[in-house]
Amino acid sequence: MLAAAHMLDLRLIRERTEWVKEQLAKVGCPGEDVDAVTAVDARRRTLFQKVEALRARRSEISRQIPKLSAEERETRKEEVRKLAAELAALEAELAQVEQDLESKLLLLPNLPDPSVPVGRDERDNQIVRTVGEPLKPSFEPKPHWELGPALGIIDFERGVKIAGSRFYILQGWGARLQRGLITWMLDVHTKEHGYVEIYPPYLVKRDCLVGAGQLPRFADNIYHDVEDDLWLIGTAEIPLTNLHRDEILDGSRLPISYVAYTACFRREKMSAGRDVRGIKRGHQFDKVEMYKLTAPEDSSAALEQIVADAEDIARRLGLAYRVVLICTGDLGAVAAKKYDLEVWAPGCAEWLEVSSCSNCTDYQARRSNIRFRRAPGSKPEFVHTLNGSGLALPRIMIALLETYQQPDGSVVIPEVLQPYVGTDRIGPPR
RNA sequence: GGAGAGGUGGCCGAGAGGUCGAAGGCGCACGCCUGCUAAGCGUGUGUAGGGCUAAAACUCUACCGAGGGUUCGAAUCCCUCCCUCUCCGCCA
Fold first, then answer.
1. Separation between the CA of A203 and the C1’ of B70 (whole angstroms)
2. Which bases of strand B have any atom within 7 Å of the beta carbon of a protein residue?
3. Which terminus of chain A faces fewer neighbouring Cβ atoms within 10 Å, N or C?
């Protein structure tokens, strides 16, 4: 039998092939990929029915054998032996076809939500709203890669010495600022936004990557321990998705909201040579991640809520930000709809993506087999899953340092953070 | 890492080659009874896929940690792996 793990509903693909092709074309998936699936699926179905019929005959005869006379028994045994040989050949073929189907199915991206603007790439993304004024200081603002070392809170050279490019050291108030931010964000999400805090493993099994939709597509961006086949998470979304893998949840428990602080690890092979300066894009970074499991009819509203929860963090930190609706061409394989949250960093003069909030609908739930029952006795249905950063640490730190830098080179700590960081100002080392 | 024990339905727990998808219990659902609470009685209660249906009923296939093997036939026998528990060692 075909494993439950498939990304799109096979029945949907079978019965509404043309519609599915239209939808997937919007996210850049060629129609041939869909046709390939339906072709293999058709073959699988005929094979499967043959196999089932043979199995039924086999067990029927076997069941009679004990009631028969000795000689009759032998002829029947012989009959089943032949039948079994035939069956074995068909079963082997079926197994191969199923594997083929599964691998083709796993490569199909999610169906985009109808409200997502159709577009070719990130240039077609839509700015939904901008909150706060991008700061234009009266003096020449410095980028964080100058501020950090000058304040003695970021050490790039030693990071490279220890671990290579794209690694850095946070030191003193820098480390303290990050730790304070983490604790503060977790406190806001757990105490005010209703999330349950989770501390997950950073190393996960291969299945988890498939379940979350990272594999088989993005293997080369993930650190992988070969000896034990464990994979370093690129985001907490991966372990959080797999928390309820192969479970049937009680519908009354939904929605479930989790928040997890984790380190994240990415090879960044695709962005070689980009953003090499500063702490914007490292191989290791910290992130607070929000995650929701909802009933299908509630996921649209839940996405807006996650965005609102992410915005709340940026707003309270006094940072200017904008919310961007990602177009179909920039959506990726997993999300049906996605918003990015970008904060303004005056030093490097760019909008930094500090959060990416996605409604993955039932895509991950199918792959991970996460279902729920509306009421005792009713059919299990797939949940919808959502995730959003709340927020990514290095980029928030960039925005804070660059936004709150003073003409004398010191950095003022926003009031909400002061109890968590333990100072109202970070000055140059004496 | 070493030695031993074990992995069965939502849970507990039988099962030891032939209608076993799996006794029994708990839990749960529905119904009955009972004029409070509690108890009692009855029925039902896995997932996925296929056939037949208007829909059911009905029926077929797969699943008793995973993967192989033996057999006409495996939850039951054999092999490999994974996981859990106990003891020892080691360690944050």
1. 40
2. 18-19, 28-29, 45, 47-50, 60-62, 71-73
3. C
**When comparing pLDDT for A71 and A192, which is higher?**
A192
Check whether residue A316 has its CB closer than 7 Å to nucleic acid strand B. Answer: no
Q: What are the pLDDT digits (tens) for A361-375? A: 999 999 888 988 887
Domain ranges of chain A: 10-106, 122-426
For the segment(s) A122-426, the CATH number from 3.30.930.10, 1.10.10.10, 3.40.50.10540, 3.30.565.10 is: 3.30.930.10
**Nearest nucleotide, C1' to the C-alpha of A375?**
B29
Strands, E, within A199-283: which ranges?
A: 203-205, 224-225, 230-232, 247-250, 256-265
Q: Which nucleotide is nearest to A55 (CA to C1')?
A: B61
**Residue whose C-alpha is closest to residue A276's, from A193, A167, A185, A133:** A167
A297 near A415, Cβ under 8 Å?
no
pLDDT digits (tens, 9 = 90+) for A263-297: 999 998 878 777 888 999 999 999 999 999 999 99
A409-425 pLDDT, tens digit per residue, is 999 999 999 999 999 99
Looking at 3.40.50.300, 1.10.287.40, 1.10.10.10, 3.30.465.10, the CATH number of the domain A10-106 comes to: 1.10.287.40
Q: Could you check: is the Cβ of residue A62 within 7 Å of any atom of nucleic acid strand B?
A: yes
* Beta strand extents in A123-168 (DSSP E only): 126-131, 154-155
The reply to whether A379 has its C-beta less than 7 Å from any atom of strand B is yes
ipTM: 0.85
Q: How far is CA A163 from CA A157, A166, A175, A407, in A?
A: 10, 8, 18, 34
Say how many residues make up chain A.
Answer: 430
Confidence (pLDDT) at A249: 87
Whether CB of A252 is under 7 Å from strand B: the answer is: no
Mean pLDDT of A58-67: 89
